[in-house]
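[agent] plan:
  1. take the single chain provided in the ticket
  2. run structure prediction with default settings
  3. attach structure tokens to the ticket
  4. add a short note for the reviewer (M.T.)
[agent] executing step 1
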Amino acid sequence: MNSYQPKSQLNDLQYYITPPHDCSYLAGKSARMVFLDPAHKIEVVTLSELSRVGFRRSGDFVYRPECHLCRQCLSSRVPVNSSVMNSQQKKAWKRNQDLEVRISLPKDATDIHYQLYERYIIERHADGDMYPPSYDQFEKFLIHSCSNSFFLELWKDNQLISVSTCDILDDGISAVYTFFDPNENRRSLGVFAILKQIEYVQSKLQSYLYLGYWVPHSEKMNYKSQYSPFEILLDGQWRLINRKLSDEEIKHLGQMLMTTLPSEWESFIVK
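[agent] step 2 finished; step 3 output follows
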């Protein structure tokens, strides 16, 4: 287990906390966010330090949940040098070997990128808070960045079918958001995009792919626990989970994170 103490430079930054508002992950729950003053320009080193203590970037905002009586938003990351594909991931990897990977900068995005994003939001997230999509939303969310970012793109026969927005860190990358062609269901593009990001970090001889918040009681977030092993930030320490969790275990963990971590979890959380 990696114990982490933030460097003093983080204490020199200006932070704000939001009033309680509806949680976007758990129905009937309220949430609060601590966020960095958006006036700050975030260098790679600073964003890396912030990521290691649980912060995440969205557009020009860098934030971390700070909720009363709930700790379910667990920062998660994949230690890429020990990552092992499961059977579903192996199938997705094999199925998509015909795709071409290209790296581009967000500032070079074109209408092709927005049209793919628009289709993805309309067909996959019409019930979410990002619907309806707009170009202004796309720019603020994925193009404008207070940090160093890039697009990891997947192309099929010169047609763009997937885009992953990634932040550069000093120990890997942070997966900000992925959108893809909703008609390519058989390809499991979401899975394959994460596998290609893991491969990218490995190619840079770095250590981690940061996946954002894993929320045990949020079904749409549970895909993050399928990458094994993975680490979660709990009580200020990165803890390694080295086996696949059952649905019952995930449910139980979520219940306990409304209070404290149950002692029986120490049996498989590697310190």
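[agent] step 4 note for reviewer: Residues 1-6 have pLDDT under 50 and may be disordered.
[agent] ticket updated
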